[in-house]
Each structure stands twice: as structure tokens, then as C-alpha cells.
Specification:
Layout: E1 2-10, H1 27-46, H2 53-65, E2 74-79, E3 86-87, H3 94-99, E4 109-110, E5 116-123, H4 128-144, E6 158-160, H5 174-185, E7 212-217, H6 227-242, E8 243-253, E9 256-263, H7 266-269, E10 294-297, E11 303-308, E12 318-325, E13 328-336, E14 345-349, E15 352-359, H8 366-372, E16 378-380
Antiparallel strand pairs: 1-5, 1-6, 2-5, 3-4, 7-13, 7-16, 8-9, 10-11, 11-14, 12-13, 14-15
Helix pairs in contact: 1-2, 1-4
């Protein structure tokens, strides 16, 4: 059995733990995140090439990672010298709290930046191609994905400080990030086409041209020697992008009154009422594209929830990752365009169960597209 150890380091606060909310770095969490990225990459490989796309992706995934009917091709473990966890209250920054919505209220504890740990792979298979794909998947996770709660919002980024294999670089610049991606997506690894051959929206998130996009903003505001300070900046810019500056409110937090702005959907939702039978329905809120559920609160105890009809939650198609380029931290934004939900959109009054409306159709990605094109300077990471 071949064994390989990789030296890793936490980049942004990692909210990874058990039911007791204590911080814990567990192998199953890493394995689960790798499985997601393997599916995204193998999906990009087979999209438009397989007669039974979903089944073939699942079969290859199960053969690699294991299933209830059989062992996978590898196992992994995590080694470290003990976690000195911290409480969310130790993090400074109003906009950091915005990115980590719910973490503070739930008293979540985190693994701090710079925490070192090792990930050890043990391969049961002698197939060299399987080993290459597993390590390439770990490279994707460490350079584009995150671990733990609020992972799509930039929490739980980490780096691998040990070379991962043939032509998989240690990323210290946006150019190296693109170089590594092209290697992983190339013929030696996942063999994803560089130009799209299929226009049908995929059933799940895949790395494929036309349905996956990644940018690295080049403005100095998105470069910082402190990863947490950078995340606060990211949170501020992200929030500003979703606000309507003509719709303001005043709010008192901790004895301090501050001025804020409602989101672009607030004006319509705050006046929402289920239409009578046969009347035109409500337009799907545009900000739905950033993920669900989305709660609106207003004066007089107003509480309106926008969610999926059958599944209330839909993970955001926008993924934020914080990179460590040398001694400087930078950010990338990714968008995965796939079938948004398996059902319609539902709007309901949280104070009155009889007030509900089902909206047919799916949200437009136009607001996400506008966000991705809003940066004054950026590098597109291209397959």
C-alpha cells in the first residue's frame, strides 16, 4: 500500500466540527469535499460524451471513493498537534459577519489561520491513473474549494505546501493557478474540453466551459497581508453589489445606530401578497440566483421567506476562495451554472402559514453575471 503525506496550512477561519460546535479537523470532511470536486471534474469530462451521464459519473465516483457496496481506491487521515480553537467573537469586521451569516449566533468555533496539519493518503489500488486523479482532485480542493460551514463564502480555505504530483504546481500567483487548472483539466488528468460542445444546462455543478467561470480581481483592495482583513473587504464589496442605495434603513447594533441599505429585491418583496386565483404571479426575485433560502425582514414584524418549493435550501452558485500567493492573500470568485432546483420557487409569510405563493420557473443568472463583470480589473482563469 503506497502512502503519501502532504503538509497543509489553514488560510481562512475554518468552521469544521461536530454537533457540539467544537472545532475538529476530520478526514471524512476532507474526503466529502474531495468527492464533490471529483464529481465536478469528472462531470466536466463526461458531459456530452456519455449516453447515461449521471449514472456513469456516479459509478466512477463510487469506484474511486467507495460506496455501501465496496471500498474505494484510497483512504486518508489527518495528523496535527492539537487544535487551539477560537470563538467567532474573536474575529473583527462587520462584513466578515455578513459572509459568515449564522456562525456568530450559533456560537461556532473555528480553526484559526496558519494552523498546520498533514493529510496522509493511502492507496489501495496500483492503478497509477486513479492515483493521479485523486491527487489532482485534492489539488482542486485546495486551490478552488474550502472546508466546513460557509465554505462557498470563503471560510475554510487552505493550502498544500507539498508538491502534489506531475505538473501540479504550488500556486503562488494567478498565472500559476491557471497553469495548474489547465493541467488538471488536460489530457493527463480529467480531459475536459477547452471549448463547449454542449449547451444544455447540466444537472449539477461541473467544471466545463460555458457553465463554469473563475476570476481573480487584480485591484489592490483585493490584496492583503492578512487573510481575515481581506475577507472583511470581500464581504463589504459583496454586500455593496447586492444593495439598492435608494432603499435605506437605520439599525441599532450593540448600542450603535448604523445606516444600511436593503437588497435589490426588498422593495418588491416587502409589498408582496399572494395574488388571487388567475392573477399574474410575482416575478422571481433576481437575487435568488445567489442561493436560497433568502429571508426578508421589515417594519411591523414583516418576515418573508424565499425558498425552493420542495427543498428549501439551494447552495450558492457563487464560490469564494482565498489564495495565499507568496506572502499576499488574494481572492477568486467562481460561478457554477447548473439546474437551479428540482422544483419551483416558493414565497411564504413566516407569520401566516396561509400566505404562500409558488413561482414557476428558475431564476436568471443575470445578477451573478453582473457581479462577475463588475470588477475594474480582473484575470479570467480559463480552461
Amino acid at each position: 500500500m503506497e502512502q503519501i503525506k502532504f503538509e497543509c496550512e489553514v488560510v481562512t477561519p475554518m468552521f469544521l466540527g461536530g454537533a457540539d460546535q467544537r472545532a475538529e479537523l476530520r478526514a471524512p470532511s476532507i474526503r466529502g469535499a474531495m468527492r464533490w470536486w471529483f464529481r465536478a471534474m469528472m462531470g466536466g469530462n463526461l458531459f456530452g460524451r456519455s449516453r447515461d451521464f449521471l449514472k456513469e459519473v456516479k459509478d466512477i465516483e463510487d469506484a474511486t471513493f467507495g460506496s455501501t457496496s465496496g471500498q474505494g481506491s484510497f483512504s486518508l487521515s489527518v495528523e496535527h498537534n492539537g487544535i487551539k480553537e477560537k470563538d467567532f467573537s474573536s474575529l473583527n469586521g462587520f462584513f466578515l459577519t455578513y459572509l459568515g451569516f449564522g456562525l456568530k449566533d450559533n456560537k461556532r468555533r473555528y480553526i484559526p489561520p496558519l494552523f498546520p496539519f498533514d493529510v496522509v493518503f493511502r492507496f489501495h489500488s496500483s492503478d497509477s491513473q486513479i492515483k493521479k486523479l485523486v491527487l489532482a482532485t485534492f489539488w482542486m480542493l485546495s486551490n478552488f474549494g474550502n472546508l466546513g460551514a460557509r465554505a462557498t463564502r470563503g471560510f475554510g480555505s487552505f493550502i498544500v505546501k507539498t508538491p502534489l504530483g506531475d505538473n501540479l504546481p504550488i500556486v503562488e500567483s494567478a498565472d500559476k493557478l491557471e497553469e495548474g487548472l489547465r493541467c488538471v483539466a488536460g489530457e493527463k488528468y480529467f480531459n475536459i474540453p477547452s471549448t463547449p460542445t454542449v449547451t444544455t444546462v447540466p444537472a449539477f455543478s461541473i467544471v466545463y466551459p460555458g457553465f463554469w467561470q473563475c476570476i481573480v480581481p487584480t485591484s489592490s483592495k483585493f490584496q492583503n497581508s492578512d487573510a481575515v482583513l481581506l475577507m472583511n473587504t470581500i464581504g463589504k464589496e459583496f454586500r455593496l453589489s447586492r444593495e439598492n442605495t435608494s432603499s435605506s434603513f437605520m439599525k441599532t447594533i450593540g448600542g450603535k445606530t448604523i445606516k444600511g441599505f436593503h437588497t435589490n429585491d426588498y422593495a418588491a418583496i416587502s409589498k408582496w401578497s399572494p395574488p388571487p386565483a388567475g392573477a399574474p404571479g410575482t416575478t422571481i426575485p433576481s437575487q435568488t440566483a445567489f442561493g436560497l433560502p433568502h429571508q426578508f425582514q421589515g417594519s411591523g414584524g414583516l418576515k418573508i421567506m424565499v425558498e425552493g418549493e420542495n427543498r428549501s435550501r439551494r447552495t450558492s452558485p457563487l464560490h469564494i476562495h482565498v489564495h495565499k500567493f507568496g506572502k499576499t492573500y488574494s481572492v477568486s470568485f467562481q460561478v457554477f451554472k447548473s439546474q437551479f432546483l428540482d422544483s419551483n420557487i416558493k414565497i411564504r409569510d413566516m407569520n401566516n402559514a396561509t400566505r404562500t405563493e409558488i413561482l414557476s420557473g428558475t431564476p436568471s443568472y443575470s445578477d451573478l453575471d453582473a457581479f462577475m463583470t463588475s470588477f475594474s480589473g480582473k484575470k479570467d482563469i480559463v480552461l
